[in-house]
Structures are given as C-alpha cells and as structure tokens.
Amino acid sequence: MRLASSVVICPFFHARRAVLFAYLENLTMQLSNGDAAGPVEYDRILKIIQQSKGDLVNVGYSEFAVEDFHEVQNSTVSSCA
Hints:
Largest sheet: none
Low-confidence stretches: none
Shape: globular
C-alpha cells in the first residue's frame, strides 16, 4: 500500500530561508563592524517582530499557535546583537 504525503512544502521555502539567513548575516556584520546603520536596523526589525505576534492573533491565528514560533524568531534576531 502506498501512502500519499499530505505535507506540501512551498517551492519558495528554501528561497525565503536563504533570504532570511542573508539578512541576519548582514545585520550581524553591521553590528559587529560598528556600522551606524546596524543599531537602527536592529531596533527596526525587533519592533516589527514584537508587533507580528499581535498581528497574527488579530487575523485569526490562536496565540498558542504562534507563541513558540514568535519566541524562537525573537531570540534568533536578539542573538545577532
């Protein structure tokens, strides 16, 4: 018996992950090199991340469903500093 997979992976998943990795790598480099734009961008992205949890809850996701993802995302960006 052959089972069909019910999991569909978005074809752009790896591309988005690569863009996010490059973004965080660039942010880390800016912060470590003393680039004046680094702290400004760091504060900007942290503000967006903090607002994103409320935005997801407002459009119908349960807080429980986004809580772990939000926590990991927040700690990942915070580790760049």
